[in-house]
Amino acid sequence: MSMGSDMYRQQILDHYRNPRNYGELADAQFSHEGVNPSCGDELEFDVSLEDDGETIERVAFRGDGCAISQASASMLSQKLPGMTLDEVEAMDRDDVIDMLGVEISPMRVKCAVLAEKVVQDGAEIYEGEKDDGQTTTE
User: Fold this and answer.
1) DSSP, residue by residue, 17-86
2) What is the pTM for the complete model shown?
3) How far apart are CA 40 and CA 22, in angstroms?
4) For residue 84, what are the β-bridge partners?
5) pLDDT in tens, 125-134
6) What is the per-residue pLDDT across 74-109, written as a single tens digit (0 to 9) for each?
7) Distance between CA 111 and CA 27 in Å, rounded?
């Protein structure tokens, strides 16, 4: 194991044990939840947007699951502020795996990308409802 990968493993454990942005946002423009049925990981994200309605201002999440899913959610919650919804929707699994910085086994990829999928699905629903004149999702 290289020194660099050990550093990333420590970072994952730190985010799992001390998640950033854990909790709820009362003023979120949208909230969305998702589950990884293969292992039971659960996440819910609240997203608050800036006045332009496109740029993420704040993010909070809550959930339960393995170290990979929870660390990924914590790390993503730090990366999202300042991104636009279009940028979020353009993210792919490689972006999340690169963010984690360690090799993820095929069985754990769903754990790693759950947070990304929850936020992307929530953004997509929000955008559709915004076009229809509604403003929140659950």
Assistant:
1) HS-TTBS--TT-SEEEEEEETTTTEEEEEEEEE-TTSSBEEEEEEEEE--HHHHHHHHHHHHHSTT-BHH
2) 0.90
3) 19
4) 55
5) 999 988 876 5
6) 999 999 999 999 999 999 999 999 999 998 999 999
7) 28
